[in-house]
Design a protein that fits this description.
387 residues; alpha/beta; Dna Topoisomerase Vi A Subunit, Chain: A, domain 2; 3 domains; three-stranded antiparallel beta sheet; 16 helices
Length: 387
């Protein structure tokens, strides 16, 4: 037979699944999942005979708890040691408010907030396709963000935003990043399939010309290319060096026939769009010696950029670990973590990756590429050209 704590956990699980339906049901004809009879579990005959005192104690505690919270108890007669005994089989929780009280924690406050928001949604957006789902979606928003979502939903329902970028939508307090991450919610509130905003601008790649003859002729050093544009490079590179960090790419030393490309974050989808980069005779990737850097390298290869790495293996780590750190770029401590799928790393790169994330790692978990002199990186690239 279940204990009070086990029943409370059952109530909390059902509450998490049904609370939004219960609150939406107060403003629409929706089945809300309450009341609900929770089974207590029944001991077998042998268990009842052998553990009768324990069963009686648990049953008494359940009855007392049910009486305290005014819960209906369903009983069943069981024969034990020649006598009839009424044992509880179910406890019925009548409504979502009682369930929140039983579950405890932040549930009462969360339910009160949800009820207020359900009323707002019902009054401002009466045509919602799935009110319960929308209510669950806004549950994690702050009051400020919930108000902003409602104002954005009303604006898009009443205006034609065709041609506007997210940054240009004239809703006070709205900014592009907020809207870009919540477009699905705003569409749901506005009752539209498409916000009709201007298409995102094409991704760009920034790079620096490294060829010494090009530089001495006085031509431009820095350039960029947008995905979808016709390539207009000053020369077709034979060597492409992709650097995770901007400064390293900007100041990489001169190298005949080469360009240095600024990394564009996780994944190499943007870089893979440029034929002149993917098909260069030698593509080199140089990133930080940390878990993120190696995962980024794996992502570039997964996207179709067949880059060879430099200074991203155990040998390089052991040589330069005196310049390492245990803090991430935001100053937060780096700790061990479970490995992610990195099937595109070489054996040497994978060995470093596993070492950097291991709980028993004794060295620094991060060596920034800027700590390694640029002439050292240049030497590694030159050796690859001769390989």
């Amino acid at each position: 037979m279940k204990t009070v704590d086990e029943i409370r956990a059952d109530v909390a699980r059902r509450l998490a699944r049904t609370w939004s339906m219960a609150l939406a049901a107060q403003t629409a004809a929706i089945i809300d999942g309450w009341p609900h009879a929770f089974p207590l579990g029944q001991p077998t005959g042998a268990e009842l005979a052998g553990q009768f005192a324990d069963v009686v104690r648990t049953a008494t505690e359940l009855r007392a708890w049910a009486d305290q919270h005014k819960l209906e108890v369903t009983v069943r007669a069981r024969r034990v040691h020649g006598t009839e005994q009424e044992l509880p089989t179910h406890l019925t929780v009548p409504d979502v408010d009682t369930a929140a009280e039983l579950a405890g924690g932040d549930w009462p406050e969360r339910l009160a907030r949800g009820r207020r928001r359900a009323n707002v949604l019902a009054s401002q957006f009466p045509s919602l396709a799935n009110p319960a789902q929308t209510l669950a979606t806004v549950d994690g928003l702050s009051d400020v963000d919930f108000d902003l979502a409602c104002r954005a939903g009303r604006w898009f329902a009443m205006h034609d935003p065709a041609g506007l970028t997210p940054r240009q939508v004239p809703v006070e307090g709205l900014h592009a990043k907020w809207l870009n991450t919540r477009q699905a919610l705003v569409r749901e509130l506005a009752g539209v399939d498409d916000l009709q905003l201007a298409a995102p601008h094409p991704a760009r790649l920034h790079f620096t010309y490294l060829d010494p003859e090009h530089r001495r002729a006085g031509y431009r050093l820095h350039d960029s290319a947008s995905v979808g544009d016709v390539p207009t490079l000053a020369y077709r590179p034979h060597i492409v060096v992709i650097s995770e960090n901007k400064d390293t790419a900007l100041y990489f030393p001169e190298l005949p026939g080469a360009v240095s490309v600024e990394g564009v974050g996780k994944g190499g989808a943007t870089a893979a769009k440029f034929e002149w980069l993917v098909n260069a005779p030698l593509v080199v990737y140089w990133g930080d010696m940390d878990a993120d850097g190696l995962e980024i390298l794996d992502g570039f290869r997964a996207a179709g950029v067949s880059a060879r790495s430099i200074l991203m293996d155990v040998e390089a780590y052991e040589e330069w670990q005196r310049f390492g750190t245990d803090l991430d770029p935001k100053g937060c401590p780096l700790t061990s973590r479970d490995p992610r799928s990195v099937p595109h790393l070489t054996a040497g790169e994978r060995a470093l990756y596993m070492r950097l994330i291991a709980p028993a790692s004794t060295g620094p978990r991060r060596i920034e590429q800027e700590r390694i002199p640029l002439h050292v990186a240049l030497g590694h690239v030159q050796r690859l050209t001769r390989a």
